[in-house]
Amino acid sequence: MTAAGESVSCPTCGQPVWPDDNFCEACSTDLAPAVTSGDSSQPATRQCPNCAGTSITPEGYCESCGRKLPAGNDHVELELDLVAGVTDKGLRHSRNEDAMALATTQSKAGPVALAVVCDGVSTSSHPDEASQAASQAAVQVLLAAVRGGSDLGVSSVGAVKAAQKALAELADSARLHANAPSATFVSAVVTAEQVTVCWLGDSRAYWIDADGPATSRQLTVDDSIAAELVARGLSEAEAMALPQAHVVTGWIGADASDAQPHVTVFDPQGAGAVLLCSDGLWNYQPDVAGLAEMALPDAVRDPLRTAATLVKFAIESGGSDNVTVVLIPFPPGTRTRPGDTSVIAATDLGDPR
Amino acid sequence: MSQSDFTVEIFQNEYLTAGAREVNSIVTVTAPDDLARATDATTGRAEAIIIDCSGSMDYPHAKIVQARAATQAALDVVRDGVAFAVIAGTEVARPVFPNDGSLVIASPQTRQAAKQVVGNLRPGGGTAMGSWLRLARQMLTSGSAGLRHAILLTDGKNEHEAPEQLTTAISECDGVFSCDCRGVGTDWQVAELRRISTALLGTVDIVPDPSGLTADFEAMMATAMGKAVADVALRVWTPQSAELQFVKQVAPTVDDLTGRRTQSGPQAGDYPTGAWGGGESRDYHVCVQVNAAAVGQEMLASRISLIVGGQVQGQGLVRAVWTDDEALSTRINANVAHYTGQAELAKAIQDGLEARKQGDEEIATAKLGRAVALAQESGNEDTARLLAKVVDVVDAATGTVRLKKKIDDADEMALDTRSTKTVRTRK
Questions:
Q1: Helix (H/G/I), strand (E/B), else coil: B283
Q2: How confident is the model at residue A20 (pLDDT cuts 50, 70, 90)?
């Protein structure tokens, strides 16, 4: 982090930039890169959270008490000024196949926050790498679109395409065509006026209204057997009780499912927060009112704490799946905390809990 | 890691139910095929053959005749350059060749000279195995050989020294040389020879008919010549506050090593495994009790490696993962189950034979019946065949048996000595 007021120059073109600039206006170099749940590098010295031992085997076990140290993405908390997220591998799975990517930037109209959540399909190859690659590729496209003033709905579909391409490259590099890497996708771009949500699969976006559960609502409709049955008149409870309820009918993947991404644009009438999550959360609370009750009122002023609360809720409810929760307060930039700057280096983030 | 390192493979179900503490694993240790090349195949090797020359070896006379012939045959298997010695055992130990209590380097000439002396061995006197072992120790260590091995043949009980003298001798020889023990006829005690062979990391077996000695001696000496490194130890690391329940060799034979631990670090202990030949493979059952961690947590329950010539070789990790998924935690590892059964089989035979000796036919029948069922279930045909000579099998699957009215001593002793032989399951 750079102290405010100090003059700095762009590392690419050398032109002067403000310390809190997100990108260089002269050459468009990213100054505040997007952060993702997978790119937190392991600290040079690690300490066992169980016994405080510092001798760690190459396989990641504590040489003293034997405990496996959490992997880099087993539990990740990310926080940018305008958006925060928590992902956790849960209790049943051996690794975290969810991934999230967050970014903040400036548009002419003001600060913008954006986020992507992907949930790797467990039965595919390398689902953890798939969700990581997909979310990273997508968030870059969204960042560029915001900066370039492009249509955010169109760009969101472009972000899905970029994620698809990343998975195809992953499949090529690892020769995984037989069981192509695949993942679900949900993204949100939150500007001062509008929320643009795009999805494919059963990861969800909700609007958590600061006024309360009554005006909160789910913004996405799952691509799943259950959702299709609900659309045909089955009750949600009946549909979810079916064994194949969770089978997704749309996803991003190298096997190029022909499902088209869905885009919805929403103009909030007041303050609130956009919640993105994998099914690891909503399996335990699919109802928006229930989620809003848990998330409010903190969702608007402390998104990291709220995300952590919701993840904890999912784990305490059974933690049967990986769980990821991202919260973006609306309008972006209304949350102020002393000492904040919008430039947050990636190395400051993502330390395991 | 170079290609000629020992390899360690772990077979286990790492999933534990919440609160469970016991972690079982089968560890397969395999020596590299080119192990022999790693050490000089001839120098550094010393062999001693201890022949019982007590008076009873003359009754029947075939015992001493065949023992001489077997020793001569074994000497022919000793490779040129290997240091060797022959000892005659009675109530004292006598160096036969060389007669000064040192070692001689094998060559066509020395081998011929030794065979001639062996041919003149005459029985007469008692039996004091402790003194035999002590002389073997002295002779085997008189050179610079690191790979030291002895063959001990007897036909009787250790009658001419106090039991403590044998105990002391065994502990003096422990770690100095390995010793394969053979009993000829049926007048010796399995438990006595097993005590020696177990401590000295060798084998024990019965040769009921003296005519079988030559083939057995040749095979034993060939195996000894195939050994390439001595003093290999199994090193087991365990987490702090974990308790090692047991370390057992389970293939090719059951041999409990638990009591033989030497502390090698704050959280590690070494267990002796003796000498190894190229390509040799053995299985171990390691059982450790750890402190349970929360569901979702993973722990390294033990790390197993080999210590060869002071160097760490190979590594296997035994893991513990706590889960509330019963489908995972209730899965029984086939290898662990198999060897748990083989160890129980050996114990059932030994307990059954002991009960029979004590005259408790009911327990003997129950134990040997259980052994029959376990042998059948695990496909241990050799043991099943030996059992069938001691009991009449009514139904092998349920272990329903009747004790035979008349049991040949040799059959009973063969069953006893070979009760620890196991079969491997997989691969």
A1: strand
A2: low
